[in-house]
Design brief:
- The structure is a single chain.
- 68% of the residues lie in helices and 0% in strands.
- The radius of gyration is 24 Å and the shape is elongated.
- By secondary structure, the protein is mainly alpha-helical.
């Protein structure tokens, strides 16, 4: 079995077989990372998985062999996920051109409008992270038949009819699976958030 250092050295020289061996050593871990970090964006996760190894191949000459290759690959994948997440969250910004009223409401000393910062604080972010973990865990426990129906209908936003076509079921069967799946999730989430 080739050492990782030797495979990196050969890969830097353009040996595609050596690089393929490196990919095979890390592909499962990068795949899992991309799907966890890019949760809720499965298509993006697939792209990140592929782009990670393309980027690694292009930038391998810059890789310092004194660091861990796995960590370097994780960083590439994380950065790609982060960039895609930021791109997806960008919303058009509409400038506010009106000046505040002269009677002292809503202005700062420099004459510009002041607005409340609606972004989440640390407590809200922690609460949302806890909720995401609880939902992911509950979805993971959901039987696959119900999980497919719930994910297609409630997460992917398909109609009952579209979900039925995708699963090759009747609309009544989809509604039944949705009902049971939602009850299951509600039960698991009630237990997760109970004091």
């Amino acid at each position: 079995m080739d050492s990782e250092t030797e495979l990196v050295r050969l890969s830097k020289r353009g040996d595609s077989q050596a690089f393929s061996k490196l990919v095979s050593r890390y592909e499962d871990r990068i795949f899992n990372l991309a799907h966890k970090v890019c949760a809720g964006m499965p298509a993006e996760a697939e792209d990140v998985y592929q782009e990670t190894f393309l980027t690694a191949f292009k930038k391998l000459p810059q890789f310092r062999s004194d660091s861990n290759l796995g960590t370097w690959l994780y960083r590439i994948a994380s950065n790609l996920c982060w960039m895609r997440f930021r791109k997806q969250r960008r919303e058009p910004v509409v400038p506010i051109l009106d000046r505040p009223h002269a009677h002292g409401e809503g202005g700062d000393p420099h004459g510009g409008p002041m607005f409340r910062d609606w972004s989440d604080g640390p407590e809200e972010l922690a609460g949302k992270a806890d909720l995401r973990r609880a939902v992911s865990a509950a979805l993971g426990e959901l039987p696959v038949d119900y999980r497919l129906a719930v994910v297609l209908r409630d997460i992917e936003g398909l109609s009952n009819e579209e979900t039925a076509k995708a699963l090759k079921l009747s609309v009544a069967a989809v509604k039944s699976r949705l009902h049971r799946g939602r009850l299951f999730l509600r039960d698991r989430l009630d237990k997760a958030v109970a004091p």
